[in-house]
């Protein structure tokens, strides 16, 4: 569940309201985490990072960012809890159904002409986006010649994704999304219900490789025809966004497709000129050079 913390609450917690001191403490905390654990949050967008860290401080029962630093640097379990707070694993199947509909109608015909298809879901969270793609490719008769690489920095989210087990209460919304996304069958064909959960059919996992990959620190690892990176870069600042776009540009084949989230765009990045927008509303771009 996404957490919303009001600015008032944050101000209350920053008793004394010394922003300059807080910024120094924050910088030291992120530097320490980077040096000790190798996770680099230094270029995450400040407003949401600040809010989440204050929320975490509250939940850990400490009083300041410096006190949190002391705890995080001496207690790996505390650091792991912090990764969960900063990761924001909010997702759903066929999220923004029109993106998947447009992909099915306008991108799939191009993919049909390829001998094989490699797709990267960067920041896949608990996997709902990835199973959605597997279903879409299966219905279009392309799944057999596809490989889907699904990565995230959050190993707990990846563990959920690998299992393919989701809460039954979400299926109503997911079925609605599936139909709006142009789904052609009965959505319940793809899972088996058990108690309060559903288990997605194992054939959907056959061509999916789940792996840990951190967009802030790791390198490109393959060449792809399609990259989905939705609702991830929204939490990054310009420096990190440019790094990730560099990574994607390097990883996409010529005429490769990049799909971003509804609030994200290629505009104002160093790589905008290398892409042609195929759908400005659904944020679908094609690499031209
Ligand atoms: C809001 S979810 C988006 C999930 C999915 N793409 C969607 O749109 O529904 C953001 C995901 O980005 C991941 N993430 C954040 N920073 C990352 C990084 N540096 N490297 C890889 N994944 C990251 C988080 O762990 C989280 O699972």
UniProtKB/TrEMBL annotation:
What domain of life does the UniProt record list for this protein's source?
Bacteria
**What Pfam families does UniProt report for this protein, alphabetically?**
CheR (PF01739), CheR_N (PF03705)
- GO molecular function, one example? S-adenosylmethionine-dependent methyltransferase activity
Q: Taking every annotated instance into account, which residue ranges of this chain make up the domain CheR-type methyltransferase?
A: 14-266
Xref: PANTHER family = CHEMOTAXIS PROTEIN (PTHR24422:SF8), CHEMOTAXIS PROTEIN METHYLTRANSFERASE (PTHR24422)
Name used for this protein in its record: Chemotaxis protein CheR
The organism's taxonomy opens as: Bacteria, Bacillati, Bacillota, Bacilli, Bacillales
